[in-house]
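not sure who needs this but someone in the group chat was asking about NADPH2:quinone reductase from Bradyrhizobium canariense so here u go. i didnt clean anything up, its just raw.
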Amino acid sequence: MKAYVYGANGAEIADVAKPSPKGTQVLVRVRACGLNRADLGMTKGHVHGSAGGVGTVLGMEWAGEIAEVGPEAKGVKPGDRVMGSGGAAFAEYTLADHGRLFRIPANANMNFEEAATLPIALATMHNAVVTNGALQPGQSVLIQGASSGVGLMAMQIAKFKGAKTVIGSSTDATRRGRLKEFGADLAVDSRDPGWVDQVLKVTGGEGVDLIVDQISGPVANQNLRATKVKGRIVNVGRLGGTHGDFNFDLHAARRINYIGVTFRTRSIEEIREIFVEVQKDIWPAVESRQLQLPIDKVFAFDDIGKAFDRMEANQHLGKIVVRL
């Protein structure tokens, strides 16, 4: 089968063996894949968690049809239209655990390209905003890096869960101007030294109840200033850098609950529970298309290199999708 593989000469399309499902796995005939920032790093040979390096089939997010099921897989059958996450997604066939996928809503008129934009954004940001962020109706939230696909989803989930004030950050003026379409009441530029003052002004001087941070590094201390006393910061991503100055005294003085999350060290049981919580809590909003992501551009699989060039240019809003 065709797959996008990191080889000795970099990322390229190659022929690899078709996998077979074991245990609780299902084999999915992939019809579309969503690109993510971690994929971009892996095309350059970087390791993401336990995945990466020469011989790795790249990709983490997909939509398609179940072709086969393992002997212990439950609740699914061949022919089911599904979307999910897991390794080795950029291929004609991929394996997934039976608890790490969602059924594509039958009544939502959702195609495979649209479905491929959703699994990582839904799972990541429901866990960050609702489970770990403990957002309550009437509270305020700031999403750092809001113009990414997961950032756009975070703002929508926050609004759906009753947030009074949603703030999104983007360093690009054009994308910043569109954040209100996805739930932002205020859009700020995290490179502007005055962005914290803007947040304090809109929150009556208190700061936000919750920050979901995808930037880290250079904004760490600004985030502390922008969070209210006894607020929460959930560290989801580190697009701005994995290291930076941190004012421990300010953190203590504001009594901020600082939480780090990643899928890389979660067990499959934990991941299954996250997928269950998404379906229990916000799935009606997915079925009604209240929670959805824009597609920036769809590329054919043979042009997957061009898809990554577009992601690296960092001019897109929403998801870049590859169709098989």
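also The chain has two domains: 2-118+293-323, 121-260. if thats useful
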